[in-house]
Amino acid sequence: MMMEFQTKIEIGKADFELQPCRELLLVGSCFAGEIGQRFKDNGFPATVNPYGTMYNPASILHTVERMLSEHTDAMPHYVFLTLGTNHVYRLKETGVIVDNCEKRPAALFQEELLSVDECADYLSKAINLLASRCPEVQVVVTVSPIRYRKYGYHESQLSKATLLLAADQVVAKSQEHIHVVYFPAYEILMDELRDYRFYASDMLHPSEQAADYVWERLTDWCFSSQSKAYMDEWRPIHAALQHRPFHPESEEYQRFMEQTQARLHAFQEKYKVR
Q1: Cβ neighbour number for residue 249 with a 10 Å cutoff
Q2: Is the dihedral of CA 100, 106, 110, 113 positive or negative?
Q3: Where are the alpha helices (DSSP H) in 21-150?
Q4: Which of 31, 73, 130, 148 could bond to 144 as cystine, CB 3.0-4.6 Å?
Q5: Distance between CA atoms of 125 and 135, rounded to whole angstroms?
Q6: β-strands 138-143, 46-48: how paired?
């Protein structure tokens, strides 16, 4: 019997299939930005943290509220909400939880810890708002694997535990008409990739290789065969568009670009995207 040196996170298949050409919204910690960028690089119409990185559930709610008030047309069909921390900062003058301290003096703010129920409440409000505008919305909740050194590693783990319990509560209590599921990005990094070679130089953020691996697990988990075919078609076109030649004025390169533009136009016509 072969020895096992890795804890494999078994996640099976999602009970929904992510289709191409439908609007996506990713809100949350910088890990949401990592996965969101991969959606964009693969040609998916993704909006990623439109008002900046949001680390806690209250700020995620603020993004959803603001987006729905400012955009009344295209609503996202798939939404990924990535929780980073239960720490929030409340402006003493107003009592309002802020999304960004904007480098103002720390004395102006009061730091607080959201409870499991408070985190779940903010998250549920965000999901209910999305569902009120797009009843078919598919929500995926994740917890960011990025640790927060400034809290101390024990406190960082307590924060993640709070978020994990809140996420579990929200998924368990989701109503039949609102589809909410959990994707174990946190567990994949903490258990399956339990090695510092999968972290960036700060030893806190996942490396590009680790983020690529989580992306692969995500696509295996929920992408439809159509989405995978879409990516396979888009990848060489995207690579050609990113190519930087030594002699851009050459006839050879001009022919290459004409061919690439023709392939791009055919792709856009096939999938009705721009």
Answers
A1: 7
A2: positive
A3: 30-41, 57-70, 116-133
A4: 31
A5: 14
A6: unpaired
Q: What residues form DSSP beta bridges with 143?
A: 83
CA 100 to chain centre: 19
CA 227 to chain CA centroid, Å, is 17
Q: Is the pTM of this model over 0.70?
A: yes
Q: Are 208 and 2 in contact (CB under 8 A)?
A: no
List the pLDDT tens digit at each of the 274 positions of the chain.
666 667 788 898 999 999 999 999 999 998 899 999 999 999 999 999 999 999 999 999 999 999 999 987 778 999 999 999 999 999 999 999 999 887 899 899 999 999 999 999 999 999 999 999 999 999 999 999 888 888 888 988 999 999 999 999 999 988 766 899 999 999 998 888 777 677 677 777 778 898 999 999 999 999 999 999 999 999 999 998 888 878 778 888 888 888 989 999 998 888 877 6
- Asked whether the beta carbons of 33 and 82 are under 8 A apart, the reply is no
Angle, helices 153-173 vs 116-133, to 10°: value is 50
Task: Say if strands 97-98 and 87-91 run parallel, antiparallel, or are unpaired.
Answer: antiparallel
CB 144 within 8 A of CB 162: no
Among residues 46, 85, 56, which one has the least CA distance to residue 218? 46
- In terms of Cα–Cα distance, which of 20, 39, 45 is closest to 82? 39
* Tokens read off for 6: 């890795």
Whether the CB-CB separation of 75 and 152 falls below 8 Å is answered with: no
Contact assessment for residue 87 and residue 95, using Cβ atoms and an 8 Å cutoff: no
Long-range contacts of the stretch 215-219 (C-beta < 8 A, 24+): 215/35, 215/38, 217/9, 217/11, 217/188, 218/35, 218/183, 218/185
